[in-house]
Every structure is written in structure tokens, then in C-alpha cells.
Amino acid sequence: MGENPPEFREELENQVEDKLELPPMFKVLLHNDDYTTMEFVVEVVQKVFHKTVAEATRIMLLVHKTGSGVCGVFTEDIAETKVEIVHHLARKSGFPLRCSMEEA
Fold first, then answer.
1. The CATH number of the domain where 61 resides is what?
2. Model-level pTM?
């Protein structure tokens, strides 16, 4: 069996590249409120988004000072799951912490 000519191989590679698209990505944000403690926010950011204490503290301060902060960028399914986990943990602990997602 002979090898395909370079033009054929290049055309085939271009067709495959055209069909491969990255999935849309979504930012997951936390929103400030007057009741959720800063310590709880840091804990949630560490647990759910796997951030270090320093990173979680920086995100918490951003949320506190500006009203919201990005915790990470994920595919749609993962972003939805993280939002649900944050809401579950917040409700379980009696906090009204809000989390949302938007297209990145």
C-alpha cells in the first residue's frame, strides 16, 4: 500500500481540524451578600474550586470589595455542577451565598 500524497494528507488534516471545536467555556462567579462570612467563602473556594488559602482569600476579597469574583472557568456541565455544589454547601450552612455562571 502506497503512502497518500502530501496534498491529500494536508487536506484531510484541515477537514478534521475544521470539525474539532472546543466546547464553550463558562466563568463561575461568587456574589457578595451581607450575611455569608468571609471564612465560609474562603472555605468554599478551597473545597469546590481547589484553590490555595492565598488564592481563595484573594477571590473572597474581590467578591467583598467589588460584588463578585471569578472562581474559575470550566465547560458548561462542570460549571453547572460547581454552582449547584456551592448553593448546596451554603444552604446546608445557613448562608445565602449566591453563585452563578456566564459564558467566558
1. 3.30.1390.10
2. 0.81
CA distances from 98 to 2, 65, 89, 90 (A): 61, 16, 11, 8
Q: Does a structural domain hold residue 3?
A: no
Q: How many CB atoms lie within 10 A of CB 31?
A: 14
Residue of 47, 33, 39, 27 lying closest to 88 (CA atoms):
47
100, containing H or E segment: strand 98-103
Q: Which range marks the domain in which residue 59 is found?
A: 23-103
Query: Is residue 12 in some structural domain?
Result: no
- Asked if 34 and 63 touch (Cβ cutoff 8 Å), the reply is no
* Tens-digit pLDDT string for the chain (104 aa): 556 666 777 777 776 666 678 899 999 999 999 999 999 999 999 999 999 999 999 999 999 999 999 999 999 999 999 999 999 999 999 999 999 999 99
